[in-house]
Amino acid sequence: MSSRRRGRVLPGFGLSLGVTLSYLSLIVLAPLAALLWKAGDAGLATLWAGISSERAVATYRLTLGTALAATAFNAVVGFLLAWVLARYRFPGRRLLDAVVDLPFALPTAVAGIALSAIFAPTGWAGALLEPLGLKVAYAPAGIAVAMAFTSIPFVVRSLQPVLEDLEPEVEEAAFTLGAGDLAVFARVIFPALLPAFLSGCALAFSRALGEFGAIIFIAGNIPMETEVTTLLTYIRLEEFDYPGAAGLAAAMLALSFVTLFVVNALQLWRIRREGRA
Amino acid sequence: MTPRTRAGDGPAARRALLALAVGLSALLFGAPLAMVLGRALAMGWGVYVEKIADPFTLHAIWLTVTTSLIVVPINIGFGLAAAWAITRHQFPGKRLLTTLIELPVSVSPIVAGVAYLFLYGSLGVLGPFLQDQGWRIMFTVPAIWLASLFVTSPYVARELITLMRSQGADEEEAAVSLGAGGWTTFLRVTLPKIRWALFYGAVLCNARVMGEFGAVSVVSGKIRGKTETLPLHIEVLFNDYNATGAFVAASILALLALVTLALKTLAEWRLERASG
């Protein structure tokens, strides 16, 4: 519900919009413009050499693969958590609801050292998994674990309000017509959740692609093997290879814009659909 | 058998899904917390206190707290201005502005750090000019503030925009039509209605400022005892094979996370009560 204009205009428009635009320009847009400027300065050939180097391409493959695995995990487990929180009343629900946000509240460096200690060969999980031949710490699996941990609240928090707002009547009608649980879920509930579900997954995926703090502690960081794109960008800076860093950062920024566009399109889809219903 | 009205409400499905959700959550969220607190206290309280009393750790705590004291109020101000402009006025480009405010959420912290380096660094766009004036921003404490402002700028704004949009402007319009001035209307009508959302946004913003790692590690230069925040200090200790020290430092931030979750739950509860 947005307020409709009624001829009367509230004061403070100039001041509030002025402050907003100046702050946004100074703090957010100027640095991003500087990044694109410097990337342009380096020249397309130099930029492309950095973006397409063998080591960079290896990081894309690893980052995309592990982020996809993490997002698939979060799609399933995040869905389950949102479902339980939205539809069931049980003792400890408030606690579970609070704890789901832990990955947002816990600094990534803390998550990183905790996960690396858990999955190290001597850690709780590592000691169980290592004899089975499953290497998590200092391997791609560890990167996926770190990504999954830091991005799962995006899926839960996107789905939960939509699940809570679902009208029970539609489900009741489907049951009356003789549909079973699974049929109602697949034909009635899931389609209604799809835009929110996809935008939650897109946000989680984007967060996984950009994650740095949690990953570097558990990844092992071996070039060509367990080096993610954010880390390579950081290494390029430390080597004073600024064009190299600019190319990788600009590529990641472009991906962020794509995510933003996708999430916005999904939101519009949902608004239109709800408007029709 | 009573006819079912909602999917997944059968006792068996309910029990199975609940058990699975609680079990997975205990592993996923409980294990990392238990690991941090357990390892921090593994050597006993004596060692714990001794590690915290380390001058570099104390300095890192000091820097992290002061950074938050500077960044959070500024982003509260920005959030209030942005929400007032967007939810109380009509203007072209509103959708675009709302999207731009959200932008930092989907930008990698590393990209944010690189962007600041290319603006203020010695080879950056403004860096050389500022250096001629005797100003250095990169690898100083203000660089940490700036990068933190970037990363956390959406937190208060998005909470306020969501709430103020759903509240509508009717009450403010009534106040103004009765002769109240702009600031009076804001302070006496708007602020009481949004205080819990404001508090909620500020708590999230604070948690993110204190925990920011990627952006800060690029712009701070990680100078020990000078520009090393608590998260950066954790990394240094961990890489120095001082695992206990790292976990002690991490436990402070883990406790902060628990306090954050508690305050957030409180704010949510008050918000729900306020909206009925």
TrEMBL record, chain A:
Domain ABC transmembrane type-1: 60-267
Principal place of residence: membrane
Keywords (A to Z) from UniProt: Membrane, Sulfate transport, Transmembrane, Transmembrane helix, Transport
Domain of life from the UniProt record: Bacteria
Compartments where found: Cell membrane
GO molecular function: ABC-type sulfate transporter activity
Pfam families for this protein: BPD_transp_1 (PF00528)
GO cellular component: plasma membrane
Membrane topology: Multi-pass membrane protein
Coiled-coil positions: none
UniProt record similarity statement: Belongs to the binding-protein-dependent transport system permease family. CysTW subfamily.
Subunit structure: The complex is composed of two ATP-binding proteins (CysA), two transmembrane proteins (CysT and CysW) and a solute-binding protein (CysP).
Primary role: Part of the ABC transporter complex CysAWTP (TC 3.A.1.6.1) involved in sulfate/thiosulfate import. Probably responsible for the translocation of the substrate across the membrane. Part of the ABC transporter complex (TC 3.A.1.6.1) involved in sulfate/thiosulfate import.
Protein name: Sulfate transport system permease protein CysT
Gene encoding the protein: cysT
UniProtKB/TrEMBL annotation, chain B:
Disulfide bond is among the record's keywords: no
Lineage: superkingdom: Bacteria
Entry function: Part of the ABC transporter complex CysAWTP (TC 3.A.1.6.1) involved in sulfate/thiosulfate import. Probably responsible for the translocation of the substrate across the membrane.
Name the record gives this protein: Sulfate ABC transporter permease subunit CysW
Topological type in the membrane: Multi-pass membrane protein
TM regions (residue ranges): 60-84, 96-119, 139-157, 197-221, 241-263
SUPFAM superfamilies in UniProt: MetI-like
Lineage, opening ranks: Bacteria, Pseudomonadati, Pseudomonadota, Alphaproteobacteria, Caulobacterales
Main subcellular location of this protein, as a coarse class: membrane
NCBIfam families in the record: 3a0106s02, permease_CysW
